[in-house]
Amino acid sequence: MAKTKQPLKRIACVTMARNDEFFLNRWVAYYGPLLGEENLYIYMDGLDQKAPSGAGRANVKLVEKQGIKVVDAEKRRLNYLSDRAAELFANGYELVIGCDSDECLIADPKTGMNLPEYLSSLDIKTTVSGLGIDVGQHLNKDDALDKSKKILTQRGHGLINSRFTKAGVIARPVRWGRGFHRVRGKNFHIDPNLYLFHFGNTDWDILLAKYHHPDIIARGEQKHFKRARMRVVLDITKKRAKNFDRTTKWARIIQTIFRPIYSWNKPSMLEMRWVVRIPDRFKKLA
Q1: Are the C-beta atoms of residues 89 and 11 closer than 8 Å to each other?
Q2: Which residues of 102-131 are buried (b: 16+ CB within 10 A; e: fewer)?
Q3: Which residues pair with 196 in a beta bridge?
Q4: N or C: which end of the chain has fewer CB within 10 A?
Q5: Residue 23: phi, psi to the nearest 5?
Q6: Among residues 103, 273, 107, 71, which one has the least CA distance to residue 201?
Q7: Which helix or strand (DSSP H or E) is residue 199 part of?
Q8: pLDDT tens digits, one per residue of 98-107
Q9: pLDDT at res. 71
């Protein structure tokens, strides 16, 4: 654990989204007070899009739609964002966070530091990752999401998901792989005090609506969406939740040692799907 506060580094945060007003507004509301809205860069996927209503002073740019089919679109999207991150480094930024609009990188409150303070205290050579926590609705315990309130005040469970242990913080120009899941040609390093909370599965009704959305159908994502997204809610509802601190410690060890055979620089949970109770210390953060 870092013990002393360092001068704050200049940090930018980038994302690209389409038809995602709700999560984009929350993305700005989370990262804006921490990093400064002027250091947020939102790229809207398609010239038919518009800036989110809560963008404030964030930098918003509409770009040509990156593709239709999911694999091609993701490759184009992350190549585009890698290029934009390189430009940000050239313009004086010392760190760039890349993440999707439904993801919040959180420094553990136990450190006594917020996100920019904690990141500034680290000696990051190329990249650092937060452990992925896939927050979901417990169908037997949680009401429908109140969009006016913070999500972690309403959701108390998450699935430890290596898909969200992403190489999201970079200290120099790199090439991100699809979904920020890895940096091409480089290893990943999971920090003991960083978590990437994914909020895309926090409401079953919203998931169902997305499942039937024309964009999901056009991109051929329904099968993947059902397996990777809707299953999270079912696991959280059915499985017994484990202690957060003890279980995440073991998860970091597993994800550091084990890798998928098809990608040596991505973490793996060996098909284990551990549900954890999210501690109260995170409740007011996002």
Answers
A1: no
A2: bbbbbbbbebebebbbbbbbbebebbbbbb
A3: 105, 132
A4: N
A5: -75, -30
A6: 103
A7: strand 190-201
A8: 999 999 999 9
A9: 58
Alpha helices for the chain (secondary structure H):
21-35, 70-90, 115-121, 204-211, 214-218, 222-225, 231-238, 244-257
Token look-up 């945060």 returns 13
pLDDT at 161 over 50: yes
For tokens 């007003």, name the residue: 21
List the beta bridge partners of residue 41: 14, 59
> Closest by alpha carbon to 171, among 105, 119, 216, 134?
119
User: What is the C-alpha separation between 178 and 199, in angstroms, rounded?
Assistant: 19
The vertex-156 CA angle with 53 and 2, nearest 5°, equals 85
List of residues 6+ apart from 247 with CB closer than 8 A: 160, 274, 276
1-15 mean pLDDT: 80
Of 223, 233, 174, nearest to 200 by C-alpha is 233
CB atoms within 10 A of CB 50: 11
Q: For 123, list phi and psi in degrees, rounded to 5.
A: -100, 90
Query: Which is higher by pLDDT, 235 or 73?
Result: 235
Q: How many residues does the chain have?
A: 286
Tokens 């109140």 belong to: 146
Question: Per residue in 131-152, pLDDT tens?
Answer: 999 999 999 999 999 999 999 9
In this prediction, residue 2 carries a pLDDT of 46
